[in-house]
Amino acid sequence: MDCAAPYLTDPADHTAAGQVLGVVSGLADAAGWLYNHWYLPALAMAMAWGIGEMVVRRLAARASAERMALELVASRHFDPGLEEIFRRGVQLARASTAMPWWAPRRAKAVQIRLRSDGSSPLRYRIEGPAGGQRLLSITPFGPDVTVNRAMPIADKPRTHTVRAEFILRGKPTAPLREVPLIPDPLQPLVDAVADLRAELGDLAEIRLDIQRAPKWALRARRTQLMSAARRAEHREAQRAARWLRRDAGGLEDSLTWQLQQLLSDKPAAGTGRRLVMPPVPRRVEPAEALGKLADDDHLVRVQLLVMCASNTEGRAQARLAQLQAGLDVFGGRSRWAMRGWQLGPWRIGADHWPTRRGFERRWDLGHCQPPRANWVRLEELAGLLKPPTMHCRLPVLAADLPTFEFGDPRLLLQGIYRGPDGRERLVATYAEETLFEVGVGKAGGGKTERALAQAIGWAHAGGGLLFVDPHRDSWPRATPFLAHEAVMRRTALIDLNALGTNPQVSSWNPLAMHHGQAAHEVVEAITDAYASALAWDDATAPRAITILTAALAVLIAVNEAACQAGRPEDQATIFHIRALLTDVAFRTAALAAVTDRLNEETRSWWQVVFPTLPADAFAVVLNPVARLAANPVTRAFLGQSSGVYNIRAAMDSRMVVWVCPGGNGPTDRLVTALLARDLLRAVRSRRDTPETRRVPFRPYFDELITLTGAAPETVAAMFEDFRKYRCHVHGMTQLLARLPSPVRLSLMQNASTLATTAGSKSAIAPITAEWGDDPSPDRVATMQRFEHYVSLNVHGRRIGPVQLRGPHLDAIFAAQARPRQVPALEQAALTNAGALPLHQLTRRAAEQISRVSTFLTQHSPATPGPATNKEYE
Length: 873
Prior knowledge:
Blueprint (H helix, E strand, L loop, with lengths): L10 H26 L2 H26 L2 E8 L7 H14 L14 E7 L6 E7 L3 H5 L7 E5 L10 E11 L16 H6 L10 E10 L2 H38 L2 H9 L22 H5 L8 E12 L4 H13 L6 E5 L2 E3 L2 E3 L7 H10 L9 E3 L33 E8 L5 E7 L6 E4 L6 H14 L3 E5 L5 H9 L2 H4 L2 E5 L8 E2 L13 H16 L7 H23 L11 H7 L1 H11 L5 H10 L9 H12 L1 H7 L8 H6 L3 E5 L5 H19 L12 E5 L2 H7 L1 H10 L8 E4 L7 H10 L2 E4 L4 H10 L6 H5 L5 E8 L2 E9 L3 H4 L9 H11 L3 E2 H22 L14
Parallel strand pairs: 14-20, 14-21, 15-18, 15-19, 16-18, 19-20
Antiparallel strand pairs: 1-3, 1-4, 2-3, 2-6, 5-7, 5-8, 6-7, 7-11, 9-10, 12-13, 17-24, 21-22, 22-23
Helix pairs in contact: 11-12, 14-15, 14-22, 15-16, 15-17, 16-17, 17-30, 20-30, 22-23, 22-24, 23-24, 24-25
């Protein structure tokens, strides 16, 4: 037997060992080759990555081309709750996935755009996948937010542009600061763009992209955070153990410990050092380590990009710094910080290589590629998921409230607005949208000065106006600024104050028919004026109204006959009412001359009813006429046959008419009522002119209390009807409560502009109530003199109330002041009004009775047909 046989190996074992050695050798050779040719696989990987990135970018660009845009416009009373905002965030997160299956993740996002370029304080847009339009169009905010389909925005290139990307810094698992909804969280961002100037090319835009968190990325992030937390806990435990051992060793080596050992009765158990047990690392709790990333619910990734631009150097950089400060409001243990590196005075960020191209691509295409730290919960974004609310103080930009330009007929001066940057500018509204204005405030508060500034600007722009001032103070205040040749030719002064030693007065015959008025309209106007001034109505004074109506019908028929005969100088006046009712000869001649011009009912009344009336029936009609006749000024003004005053002609020829009735006594109220009712009749008569050819006209009524005391229903009708005829009323009063209820209701209902100065809280409260007590009566009552709160109508939407400083004529129209031309203006105004010396007009008025009687005698038929009242015979 071969004794060495047991030590022989199996051939199969040699084969297996050879294979193992071969594999090891092959791996070693491959490793050596890779080590020597490392650049080849790196190049292959780079090529594969480049091709993949190119494909992804093309697919993402294709998906982005199908995006849609919505613009959200909040109403003035928009006040959402946290639940409504949270539901909106859920909608945005859900809509971000409404993309085709092949769309890359970077294209699956919804973008919130907060933009300010001068067109509005802060535009709020939503851009996202076209498939999410139906989901995003219906918001949980209700009717307080209007959702409009928005068109793409094309920006003009600016000279200076800065870009920035913001990432979350601080503790990655900590939430942003919980910002309360009152005041609006958007207020710091609105304030940052409040001084934006569109004329300098200023632009500021914030884009917040929201993307649903991918599960694998969230798991990877959690694993990373848990590993980091465990490592931090181990390091802390090791650090604590080192300090514990060091403290124990230091204690045993100390002199105090050695002395204690020597003095102790008990011998030491041993000479070695005491055993120190190191602290055990505590268990890391996932909820504590992951923080806001612990739960999957409503967790999103965000990308925050900012761009500012301007045509003026330095403004874009300053704007970016302001926006950065505004975003600091959201900061807590986690905060928004600008991405990049700070190298001394230089900052390398989104404006520089190598990140600029990526920023511009994401900006232009709406791609969302957020940093890994930008994980937030929807609750943290509550302040950005909604448009500005009612608790946000919005600035007034030039696009909201245009700047006044002297001589521009499209603009109507409103006041001086002080912007957030301290700049002041004259602001205006568009004339075609300013239908009615109401100014309220205490005496001396500046409401009349503001109205004068507006009227003077309108006059210089070629507009026509009527300024009614019972106290006449406005006329000398306005004359230095109206004393221009172009305005002089259009200015007329109707002054019934009879000032000076030789006063001049204009003339007006309310019954005159030489201007072609409709007879029934003139009768109605004068009767209604009497009834309004004297508090007549069909229940308390039916007989007086009937007598006056019948008398006016006869006198106006007489005037029609005189005009047709070519003798307008022989027309009857309002003072002929007395002769018609009390003078038998005059009445007989008048009725005989115009019998064929009267309708059957009027003729029958004079023949049947009038003879039965007692003598005292006429006193109520004749008493006001007697008072008018007793005043030499009103007798001269109303006693001319064919007066010069014609408000309808003044409207159509863009005249600037100043009317000063002379006071607020009973006689003055009757004259004011006649003028007001004639204005109402004249404006309504514009129905004979096509709407496009009606010349705009603006009556200004100072001291509405005085005017409405004479004609309340007339003034109320003005605020209700004049808009149709392009006649726009501006009224000023100290107290709304003093106005009759119909006037007050019409004023508040139809006012395009509502203004108030300081005053008592009880007087201001009705105005601030229209604004929802924002500002409050307390705030308005403590304003400085000449300050106003004004609500305005521009482009069909209400602006304000905003605080304006009332314009002072000497400041804003200093270049237009012509004090040396004031005498020429006054002379031209009196000439245009046909004013003559008072004594001359008084003499003519006294002669008018005989002139009319002569005309009637010459034109009366031979057959008599008088109506008599025996008690007056």
